[in-house]
Structure formats: structure tokens, C-alpha cells
Amino acid sequence: MKLNRLAQYVSLACGGLAAIAVPTFAADNSDETVERIEVTGSRIKRIDMEGASPITTITADELAKSGFSTVGDALRSSNLNAFGSWGGGSNNGWGSQATVQLKGASAFHTLTLLDGKRMAKSPVMDGGAANINTIPMAAVERIEILTDGASAIYGTDAIAGVVNIILKKDFEGIQFDARMDRPTQEGGDSSNMSFTGGLDSEKGHLVFTVEHYESQKIMQKDRWYTRPFVKEGGNPEDYQDWVNISPTGRVLTQGDAGGWVYSTPFSNSEKSCADVYGEAFVGSLIDSDYPGDTLCAYDYTQAAATSVGQTRNNTLIHYSYELTDSIELTARAYWASNETKDISAPVPASISIPEGLPAYTTPEGLELVELVADPSAGMNYRFDTAGDRVAEHHDNIYDFLIGLDGSAEHFDWDVAVNYNKYDNYTWGTGYQLKGATTDLVGHWDEDTNSFVGWDPRDPNSALPPGATANYDKRMSASYLDVNGGLSFNLFELPAGDVGMYIGASYREETLDSKVDALAEAGQIVGGNGGSGGAGERDVKAAYFEVVLPIIDSLELNLAGRYDDYSDFGGTFNPQVSIRYNVIDSLLLRGSWGTGFRAPTLSDLYQGTSEGFGYIKNYLNCYKEGEDIDTCDRWDYGATRTGGNEALKPEESESYNIGVVWEVTDEINLSVDYWSLETTNLISELDASEIVRTQAKLWELADANGEPRPDVSSVYPGTSISQIGNGKIDYVVSQKLNVGLSEREGIDVKLGAGFGSDYGDFKFGLGWSYFLKYKSSYSQAGAQILSDDYAGREDTPAHRINLTADYSFGDHALSYFGNYIGSQKSWDIVEGSWDAEAGETADDGQLYEVDSVFYHNLTYTYTLPWNNSISLGVTNLTDEDPKFKYDGTYNGNLYDIRGRTYWAGFRQSF
User: Fold this and answer.
1) How far apart are CA 258 and CA 470, in angstroms?
2) Cβ neighbours, 10 Å, residue 536
3) Alpha-carbon span 489 to 326, nearest angstrom
4) pLDDT in the model for residue 15
5) pLDDT at 291 over 60
């Protein structure tokens, strides 16, 4: 079925990623028949493109002109992706993934569709979101972004909005595309090729696309800001003042018999850790948080990657055939294969050495420090001697759709069956078998008066085989969806027919996410992303939609959907929207609705997984008589988390009020105010909050002379484990319905197009402004709504896209700008207050993360032989990320590739 003339006009009027469709408020009065089409956010076909809910359309041509080589990069740079989103970093289980997060909400709150049907969800992301890295650029006709809640139409996940990828269906001929990207900084090279073909017959149409893409990794040592450095004004001899180094290099960890002291393994004052263990080691350093401790820290940036290397292959076939004059068959087959290589630094681990190690001098003159025998004695050891950790992720997606659309005298009907399966397999090497190293440690031989076997303190003592292990994962998610519905006119009002759509669907979901047996038992050190669990469920749904033309210029839309889940029960979500044409060129619109996100199968059934990070040790602060609320003691430890079968769905309420104005035939403007409130959010409790709650419980019990209660009395299923000196060993958490958030903002879109004797000009602006963003945090079992975070660190209040296009004859020049606003930090700039005037740190100035403006340029020359060449540059001014007070940056917001030149070629037949 062909796109109608009005829809084509709307598409042509768009001015890039920031553009809006020129509003079409009434059907053409000529004798020409105007086809009704279906737009994202409604199943009722209509003439008018501009409805009661705001939709931004991005065409394939605009994607190419923006300068990005992948759909994922383009969507992540949109102003509608307000707080940024994951783009595929290294050293984690999500290395092969990329997401989009409308309204700054969770990636699980943005529903991604392929031609109006649910896209395969990634088991790597617990079956909660689609991996937009798997979308082939060459197969996209346009992308429609609905920035309104739509659970009444689509069901779960459509809380913040919907991204609908519309694939090519009417292409005819053959087209070959190739592109090469080369950054000016080290790493990040990429290239892609695609082949698209289309065949047309009297009743049928076939389109097929094949695409290949590959990119190189960026190492942490390749960027100055991910290399180690000392904080401004910091002490280079104090570990606490360093950024981008790990405390787990070479460190003896004494037990009770040794006074719980951490120390550098050697005592030669003339030697540095780099002299002894290699250039990746830093120190010897002190630790001001634990006076008397020393350590050899480790520069992991020399071995670890920031971004992954990827190879992607995609194939898409779309076929449509008119079975009769009133019935059309649609069939689609889609396959995607991604291979991702994630390189992490060698395993940081702890070796238990209860027998201790003697002090002696090696033949090379290294004076080794004694490790006193004790059940808790050991050594924190970076296994650089065993090589880097390498995780090879293999993602495969299969998606099949077959559907029928038909019309009868009094109604239209549709029925479709959609099956998709997402498999991920990870082959991980370079990890450590827990406990195995203890057995490999040698001993002192009194007969020979020498050390026999492996001494982990001695760099010339080789690590024997037997300690390394694999960390392998297999994940699979599948969805089978059968749906259908009827569209018809109920009755006629003076202003027109009352249209209605009723439908039903049945869906089966499965998740099978496993790690190998040793990893499942917690016996592999250095891995991440444990078992997601296994489960299955079915979902039955019934839904309706009604359009009532109250008067010629006023339309009311009612929608509702009931979903019944076999695991947690049912939920009903309504939506009411209205559009009013004040005059032909001015439209007012508004909507209200509720939404939900069902807990994923992983949320419910996930096995225990373990991750490492810094945990604030409130318990030690309390033991030392320090104030709990101002505690600043940090330990590096593990957090163990798992699923919870008692979880309930997340819920939301949203509304939107907007105006669309066709200022002139060439200029159009829309302004939408929106509000989104979410409750019952599923989250894992922060390990530091669990420790803080335990400390507060102790403080209260001690004050009242009562027994100290366990933290599990406040947060069920949680616990804390400490070693003898009070350092955190690990914290056990779990997923709970504990969160809520409030968001308000304004989205502004402006589009303009002008023709002249000197060429054609088009301009677009998209501005997303956050008025409010509040989220809850847990405090001793209570949920406290935060202060307004809009404009604060990691949550920029302003995101702006600018586009400009100029074309003249065979020449075209395009500009895309991406502005990310500044953000006020929570950190006070040292020395920004006047102590002599009686001021304190509370009077100081808050640090501000600078704004950044990325600029992309694209030039295209159309040659006479049905081909064209394009030259471009992304991040023209070579902007680095913008940094927080501690020198780190938000990888979800900022580009690390730097200035990148690219060239492309297209040949059509």
C-alpha cells in the first residue's frame, strides 16, 4: 500500500533529526481520493498526520545527512534522548548493546517497534529492552518517535514513549552503499557496506537488504582523560587522590596476627612498584583512609578498552502480495548477527594464604615483607601474569512475521503472527578459578633454606598453570505474538463517523539465561553479568480505541487495554486524548493516560550475580565514633544481587498539552508540555544504603540499650559480610519495588523550508527542556523524594538538535548540531569560600560540568551515473567529554571517538 500524498508531503517537509512534520489539518477538497494511513500511537487509520500525541519523524535521508553511520548513534544523539543512553562500553556484560531512553527514563520504559510490532528484546538486558545496535541502517525508511505514554495501545514498556522503526517496503531497483570512518585520535575506525534490492510485480513487491558493519575498539590508554592522574591539589603518594587506578595490584593483607595491616610486598626503599612489577604498577602509595597501610596500585588503563570492537551482519526480506482486491499478505524475515570483543584488564583477586609467607631476600635483591600466618592472611593480586580478560559476545536475532490485512463492506480487519528469538553466547577467557591460587602458593623449605614453588610477592616467580578459567554465558529470549483486530465505524455524528478499533493478542515469552556451573557457584573471579535465570509466561490482552469527531474542529480519542499476565496478574490502562483546530493553521492537543512495565522474567527469576565497586563503610565510621551521616570511608567490595518472585509491575501516569502552528506554508512550530510520574519502580538497593541502614539500626539500638537488629528486618533478603578489620567483604541485595520519580518538561520543534534561484534551504530545531526531575532514594526503609535534579550532574536540563540543509543542483550540504547543557555538580570547589570572613564550605561555589556542542557536516555530490559521493566530519571541533569534579565523565552522554572524517559512496541501478 502506497503512502498518501499528504504523508509524502509531511515527510519531505521534515528538516532533519530536529524537524517536525508540517501539520495537515484537513483532507484535500479535490476529487482525488486520499488514503488513510496508520501512524505510531494509534491503530485507527486516518488522514491527518498531526494527531493528539506528538510524533517526530526521521527519514532515511535525514539519518544519512546527520553524519552518523548507525541507527543507534543517531537515536542516542537525539534531543529526545535527554540524559543519554548506553552505547556499548567495555568491561561489562552489556558490551554488545545500545539503547535509547526517551524523557531520561529507563531504557526499559521506551518501547521499540519494527513496523508497529515489538522488536526482539535482548536477554543481555534481562529481556527488558531492545538492542538498537541490531537495526540495519540500510533497511530503514523512517523512524517515528512518539513522546507520549502508550500502554493503552501497546501494553507494557510504553511508559516514556515509543520508537517505531519503519522498514523499506516500496523500494524498486538496486542500491549499493559503502562508508568508511576514520577518527583523528587512536582507535574507533569503522566501515560499513550494504546492498538493497527491490522487485515489483502487478500484485506483489519484494525488498531485501544485506548490511555489514565493523568497528575497532578504543583503549583506555588512547585517551588522555581515561589514563591515571592525580586530582588537582592532591598528594601523588596517596592512593585516595588518584583517579583511574585500582588498589588491587600487589598488596599483602595481614590478618589479626599481623594487625590487619595492608602493605607493599617488598621493603626496598630505592625501588618503586613499577621497577619491581612492571610499568602498569603505581607506588608504593599510602592510603589516607587507613593510616599505616601501603600498597602497589595498578594502572588498569594500559590493558582495558573503553569501547568494544564489533562486527555486525544483517539481512532483511520484506514481501507483500495482494491475494485479492481486498486482502493483502505481508511476510517479513529478519536476521542479525553481532560479534563483539570486550577486553578488560587482568583479574583483580584476593589470594588466601593462611600459612603466611616468610620475609627473605631474593637472588635479585628484592627484600620481601613477611605475611604473618593467620586464617585471614592473604594477598590482593592483579593477575597480569595470566593475561587480559577477553569476552567474545555473539548475538543472533531471528524475527519472522506473517500477516493479513483485509477490508469488507463495513469493516477492515488484520491478523498477524510474529515470532522473534534473541540468542547471546559469551566466551570469556583469562578469568581465575576461586581458591585455586591458594593451592598454588609455595612454601619455605628449611632443608634448602629457600622458597619452593610460586611466591606471588616475587615478580621472578612464575605463576604455575591451574589458576585460569573460562567465564561462559548462554542467554536466550523468545516471543511469540498472535494478534488481530477489527476497525469500523460505530455511527455517524454531524462532524463525521465515529471510528472504532477492537483487538486482542496472545503472547508467550521465555527467558533462559545461564552461566557455566563454576560461575553460577561463584567460583570464577573477575566475571560480570551472572545468570539472568529462567522462566516463561503468557500474556493475554484485549484493547480498544475510539475516535469521536465532536464537531468539525474537535476530535476526542479514547483508548484502553487490559493485559493479563500468568505470573503477576492483570492491569488495565486507559488513555484519553483530544485535538482541536482553533483555525486551519493552529491545533491544540492534549492527552492523559496510565502505563505500566511488567517485571521481566529476569527480575523475577534471576540467579545470584556478583559485581564489584566502592562501598561506603558506615559501619566502620560508627565503630570509630565518627558521625554516620558525614562518613567518608570507602571500601572496594562485592555486591551480590538476585531476582524476586514477589515483584509487582511498575506504574505510570502521564499527560501532554501542546500546540502546533503552521506559521506560514514554509514555517511550522510545535510546543508540548509533558508530565510523567512513575511509581513502584523496580531497582536493586545500593550497597552503601544497605550498610548505612545497618549502621543507623546499630546506633538506634545502642542508644536504647536494645539488641542490634539485622538490616534484613528493614530490607528483606539483604545482608553484610565484613572481614576482621571491619572492611566490607560483600553485601547481599535484591530487586524490590522501591522507587518513584517525577518528570516535567517542554519539547519544542521548529521546521522551515525555503526555495530560491540559488538553491533550496531547510532548517530544523529540536529543544528538550526539563522543568523538573525528581527521583526517590531509600533511607532506612523509607522512600524519600529527592530535590529537583534537572540541570544537575548527569541530568542536563537542556538538549538541543539543530539541522540545516542546502541543496543546489547536484550539490548538497548538511549540518547537524547536538548541544548538551551544563550541569551543576554536588561538589563544592575547594577554596571557593572565604574562611577569614567566617564562611564555611557550605558557602562555597558548586562545581559546574561544562556544556558541549557537537557539530557534524556532510557534503554530497550527485554524479551523472545514478551514483553519489559523500564526504563528512562528525565532532568537527574535536570535543572531549565534559568532566565531573573528580575527573570522571558520563559515557552515556558524551562522545569519546573525537573528530572523525568519513567518506561514502552510493550506486543505484
Assistant:
1) 34
2) 14
3) 18
4) 35
5) yes
Residue 37 confidence class, pLDDT cut points 50, 70, 90: low
CA distances 106 to 20, 114, 345, 776, Å, are 25, 20, 29, 14
Mean pLDDT of the chain: 89
Distance CA 159, CA 327 (A): 34
DSSP string, 260-294: T-EE-SB--TT--HHHHH-TTEEEEEE-TTSTT-E
Instruction: Single out the residue of 79, 49, 75 nearest to residue 62, CA to CA.
Output: 75
How, if at all, do strands 634-641 and 728-732 pair?
Answer: parallel
Q: Which residue has the cell 550540504?
A: 813
For the beta carbon of residue 859, count every other beta carbon within 10 angstroms.
13
Check the CA dihedral 773-779-783-785 and report its sign: negative
Are 468 and 368 contacting, i.e. CB atoms less than 8 angstroms apart? no
Candidates 95, 196, 189, 88; CA nearest to 136 is 196
- Band of the pLDDT at 62, cuts 50, 70, 90? very high
Q: Which amino acid is at 188?
A: G
Rounded CA-CA distance 307/604 in Å is: 31
Identity (one letter) of the amino acid at 195?
F
* Sequence letter at residue 384: D
Residue 695's nearest CA partner among 585, 759, 580, 616 is 616
Of 37-51, 365-379, 422-436, the one with minimum mean pLDDT is 37-51
Let me know: does 415 contact 115? Beta carbons within 8 Å: no
Structure-derived torsion over alpha carbons of residues 531, 536, 542, 545, reported in degrees to the nearest 10 = 20
Q: Give the containing element (helix H, strand E) for 612.
A: strand 609-616
Angle at 368 between CA 364 and CA 371, to 5 degrees: 155
Q: In angstroms, rounded to a whole number, what is the distance separating the alpha carbons of residues 893 and 824?
A: 15
In sequence order, the β-bridge partners of residue 691 are: none
Residue 427 forms beta bridges with which residues? 392
Q: Using H for helix, E for strand and C for coil, what is the string for 88-108?
A: CECCCCCCCCCCCCHHHCCHH
- Do strands 204-215 and 218-219 pair parallel, antiparallel, or not at all (unpaired)? unpaired
- pTM, two decimals, is 0.86
Closest CA to 386 of 445, 315, 470: 470
